[in-house]
UniProtKB/TrEMBL annotation:
Highest taxon, organism lineage: Bacteria
Keywords noted in UniProt: Signal
Signal peptide range in chain numbering: 1-19
Protein name (Swiss-Prot/TrEMBL): Lipoprotein
C-alpha cells in the first residue's frame, strides 16, 4: 500500500513538470524556426536585388 501511495504521489508531481517541459520544447522549436526564416529572408534579400541601389540620372 505504501508503494502504491508513493508511486501515485510521484505521478501527480510529474504532471505539472510535464507541462513545463512541453512548453519549453515548443518555445525552443519556435525560436529555431524564427531564426531559420530570418536567415532565409536575409539570404534572399542579398541575392535578389530590389532596385534601391540605382543611380539617379
Amino acid at each position: 500500500m505504501t508503494r502504491l501511495l508513493a508511486v501515485s504521489f510521484l505521478f501527480c508531481l510529474s504532471l505539472p513538470l510535464g507541462g513545463c517541459i512541453v512548453g519549453t520544447a515548443v518555445s525552443v522549436a519556435g525560436d529555431v524556426a524564427e531564426g531559420a526564416v530570418n536567415t532565409t529572408g536575409a539570404v534572399v534579400g542579398a541575392v535578389i536585388p530590389d532596385g534601391d541601389d540605382d543611380k539617379d540620372d
